[in-house]
Amino acid sequence: MNLELNLTHIVSKLNDELAQFEKEWDERNLELKAYQLVFEDKDDLTPYFNSDEKVDMQHVNTINLKAWIGAVDSTCILLATTNKGLLFAFRACVVLSYSGKPRAFLRLGPYLIHLNSNNLDNMNYLLSLNGEKNLMNQVIRIRIERILQKLLATNLKNSLILIDGSLRYSVVEPKPFNLKDIIEISKERDNHIIAISKKTIIKNIQNLTSKLFECKDAPLIIPLSLNGEVSLGHITITKFTRDGIPLRVDYQNSLKLALSMLLSNDSFNFGYPESLSLAHRLSIFNALEISSLKCYVKAKGAIEVPSYNFRTLVL
Q1: Residue 279 falls within a domain, yes or no?
Q2: Of 120, 123, 151, 164, which Cα lies nearest the Cα of 280?
Q3: Which of 35, 153, 220, 292, by CA, is between 20 and 30 Å from 17?
Q4: Is 228 among the domain residues?
């Protein structure tokens, strides 16, 4: 009898909660009227939102300024899970361009790194055990990229360093050569830094990209002041070329000088610097290389064991 009474009470409370939820859901649905959206059927989609917002769109008058450009990118993949940790493979590349052409490149790797309790501090190791594989991937990429960026900042002078991403300070910045140190070294040697993001989840930027799409002039920028966005530089939406896509660009020092260096010494594909694109293509792994790395690991004595997908077994 008591059980029946308790169940009745629970069902009654549940109906009340569902009724309230349904009411709130209806109100939220009404707010979607005339909203623009992109269905997330595929990864890496960039919305093209039309915006009536008035923006401070500026044309940048650049000059012909010859300088070396150093672009850095890297790739890191999870190759295997071991009984002690995670086995990653990574590769990085530096591309040097001058006067509109790539002049040299330095490709490092592939390297293998086994992340476990012996080579990670307690926090990062616990994160890796809890399945934060993307964070571990980021730790490796940022560390190797910071080494190469510091190398460029130290050895170049009156040049431009291109970074794939933003100038946002990461929680996994390495201590000996973090982004702040690289920026300071660059200032001492009169180098400029530009960080370029192909994709962003910041709505302010997504809503304004259509403004630059529609304008045929270039180079164009929309300066931004984003509340809560932590950046070690200035943030803009930038369109480098007339046929280019709008990109988030973080920069240090003078934007006019940095853009002059970039436009005078790099080529572009749909408005994206070829130096960064080439650094990316030279750092990625193809299927044959991944298979070769697996064979190498097994040749070193690793034992492949059976694996199961528990989700497919129980659902």
Answers
A1: yes
A2: 164
A3: 35
A4: yes
